[in-house]
Amino acid sequence: MEAEWSPADLALLEELKRAEALLPDDAPRALLSVRLSVLTDDTTSPVRQELDLRMLARERGCRVVGVASDLNVSATKVPPWKRKELGDWLNNRAPEFDQILFWKLDRFVRRLTDLSTMIDWCLKYGKNLVSKNDSIDLTTTAGKIMVTIVGGIAEIEAANTSTRVASLWDYTKTQSEWLVGKPTYGYETAEDESGKVVLVIDQDARRALRWCRDAAMRVRPASARRMVKVLVRAGLCGPGLTAATLLRRLRNPALMGYRVEEDKNGGVRRSKIVLGSDAKPIRVAEPIFEKDEFESLQTALDRRSKNQPTRSPDGATKFLGVLICQDCDTNMTVQKTSNKGRSYAYLRCGKCRSGGQGAPNPEEVYSRLVNDVLKVLGDEPVMTREYRQGAEARKEQQQLEESVSYYMTGLEPGGRFTKTRFTKEKAEKTLDDLIKKLEAMDPESTKDRWVAVHNGKSFRAHWEEGGMEAMATDLLRVGVKCKIKRTKVKGVRAPSIRMKLMIPKDVRKRLILKEDDFAEAF
């Protein structure tokens, strides 16, 4: 979805920007939040939202410092702090604005909990929420009450919509007609003689699937990778097809013409047959494979499948994204195999032939990486980012400037402090003290800003408390890489391993920990 600006819209935009240029330097700064799920004739376009909000900013005497435009984003599913545009402003650019302006509350949030989180965030950082079409203003008690009431109504409306959608999906699962949803690979939608939408077999996809079954049933069956190459070369499938996707298609029981639903079991995506009220599968189309053909195909695929060990909940590879291959510059990952009851783990890369020389004993590589990182970064202090508001400092600066002006006027010829030598000397001394205080003020203290504060720990202590997981998270966040060079050693099966730590020049700045204000809300 893209916003389309007409000549009239662009002319109005330029007019509003010219008016904004006349505002004083200390005018309140406004961030415009524009959101839309789906653009239809009944919705307010992103362009209209932005122009309305710019006119609202002009009425309030605010300078627009940015537009957070999040299109094709559901307010029910994605809270403000997780949106691509608005989330960046909230998490990283809070010092740059004073108010968040939005067209209507349901364009901003649709869940009461999200609204409550945003109100708490605004009160903590001294920000205000303002709606074009709702009586919302956090600077007043009535505004806070109103925003809660309106937010509750928006959440009820969203819940009703969600219930209707869920009910529709539950109903369609029990029907033989195809009402909504994307057909399984191998089928496409069409209209029958009565005008109803039905599933029919996609002949090109059928050819591809039937060929794959024949290839899997041979005495020397073809691998999934080989099947992908043949199908792509023949033009029956797109170049983005992978072996994992092809296997998932071949294992889908929907190819027997039955209705299915997704069944996530142990992190593996599978589909299972939906049973009707008579406890029998619901047929929605003609089968591409008969039952015996499908079952024999599954048996053939099972014979070639590798019996991989169960996945670890924390992932098979520690320091994923940090350890990279020096030759092909791709991530090093742990690949496990079993042979005669024994399990073996190797670090391999993504692009080198056959994963390159396998590096056995990944734990030893992890240990060497930890030691190298501690030598270089272990003694660095842990700095945390804190938000400092400049409102109090600005108020103090304004008072000092007004006092200086007052005494300077009084010391002019004929002024109130020039009538006697005593009052003149006292006023001059007071003026000097005020000027010194004004000069001593740090200009940065009058701005809303982030500051780095030492929390009293070193990263060595921080990582000892959090373990490898904490170190891996920090290294990935900071952009630290460790290049692995594997070299074949004559007469030795395992290659020699050389490790080169790559640390960014601005690593100290990147290491600063940023408090996640929305962690509990997640």
UniProtKB/TrEMBL annotation:
Keyword Plastid: no
GO molecular function: DNA binding; DNA strand exchange activity
Keywords: DNA recombination, DNA-binding
Record domain Recombinase: where: 184-307
CDD domains linked: Ser_Recombinase (cd00338)
Superkingdom per UniProt: Bacteria
Residue ranges crossing the lipid bilayer per the database entry: none
Coiled coil: none
Pfam families, A to Z: Resolvase, Zn_ribbon_recom
Name of the featured protein: Serine recombinase
Organism in which the protein naturally occurs: Streptomyces caeruleatus
